[in-house]
Design a protein that fits this description.
Elements: E1 2-7, E2 17-22, H1 31-40, H2 42-53, E3 65-69, E4 77-82, H3 93-110, E5 114-117, H4 129-146, E6 154-159, H5 162-173
Parallel strand pairs: 1-6, 2-4, 2-5, 5-6
Antiparallel strand pairs: 3-4
């Protein structure tokens, strides 16, 4: 088992699955969501539309996750999760933790070895990166401890800058 942090572009990360900080409509947006949709190509939007027309007619709930193929990304899968939006009063850390746990549940169902996460709900959704890092690391550690035989075993947090790296490094060292 390993958890690490790196500065980089999530759309260029070679991992079995990348996690998309999606909006509930699953049809693309800004930030990480927009970048993943742009890099994956138009087939990702088609796959998300199929989800909206079948299993997720009302969209994806906050804290839930679902997978699609990654198409033109270097990953095999995109795991879409909807983080809580602090600007809309969604301030429950349990919802944020659920994004990470449910994404790992989906990854385990796909039998992938490696998953790359963004700082879900930081940035446009207003959550302080310190809180996101603490909750992400704590949740992923608990998930790994509770699923000792399951994959994934390689979890990476991909951030945009040195501050994000330092914050996630501190959360990883905290124990």
């Amino acid at each position: 088992m390993s958890m690490s942090v790196q500065i980089g572009d999530l759309t260029r990360i070679e991992a079995d699955a990348v996690v998309n900080a999606a909006n509930s409509m699953l049809l693309g947006g800004g930030g990480v969501d927009g970048a993943i949709h742009a890099a994956a190509g138009p087939r990702l939007l088609e796959a998300c539309r199929r989800l909206r027309n079948t299993t997720h007619r009302d969209g994806l709930d906050v804290g839930d996750a679902v997978a699609t193929p990654a198409f033109d990304l270097p990953a095999s899968w995109v795991i879409h999760t909807v983080g809580p939006n602090l600007h809309r009063g969604q301030d429950d850390p349990v919802q944020l933790a659920s994004c990470f746990a449910r994404s790992l549940d989906v990854a385990a169902g796909l039998d992938v070895r490696s998953v790359a996460f963004p700082a879900v709900s930081a940035g446009a959704y207003g959550w302080p990166v310190d809180d996101v890092a603490r909750i992400a690391v704590m949740t992923c550690r608990a998930w790994l401890a509770g699923h000792p035989e399951a994959r994934p075993r390689d979890i990476r947090f991909v951030v945009l800058d040195e501050r994000g790296r330092d914050v996630f490094d501190a959360a990883l060292r905290a124990g």
